[in-house]
Structures are given as C-alpha cells and as structure tokens.
Amino acid sequence: MTERAKPTSAEHAKGSLKEAIGKLTGDARIEAEGKAQKRRARPSKAGPRGD
Predict the structure, then answer these.
(1) CB within 8 Å of 39: residues ≥ 6 apart
(2) Which terminus of the chain is more exposed, N or C, with fewer CB under 10 A?
(3) Could you name the domain of life of the organism this protein comes from (predicted)?
C-alpha cells in the first residue's frame, strides 16, 4: 500500500505547486490545471469494506 501512496503524494504535491504558481502569476489556466491534478491524485475511496 505504501508503494501506491508515494506516487499519489508526488502527484498531489505537483498539483499544489502548479496551483500556487498559477495564483502567483495570475494565470487561471495553470491554477485550474493544478487543482485538477490534485483531484486526480486523491486515492479512490471505493474499496473493500470491513463489515
């Protein structure tokens, strides 16, 4: 499970950085790309249930 978490964390960090750069430069497109990248990096909540 940790193997999957590392790429997700890296992608989330890249998205955060891209979003921040977009905000600093006033580039709405880059900011939106960063937000979208962060959303894609979130792990899926669907999975086996422990019931």
Answers:
(1) 15
(2) C
(3) Bacteria
| Residue matched to tokens 């899926």 | 44
Burial of 35 (0-12, 13-18, 19+ CB in 10 A): middle
Please give the structure tokens belonging to residue 12: 């989330």
The string of DSSP letters for 2-49 reads HHHHHHHHHHHHHHHHHHHHHHHHT-HHHHHHHHHHHHHHSPP-----
Task: Give the total residue count for the chain.
Answer: 51
| pLDDT tens profile 1-23 | 555 556 788 899 999 999 999 99
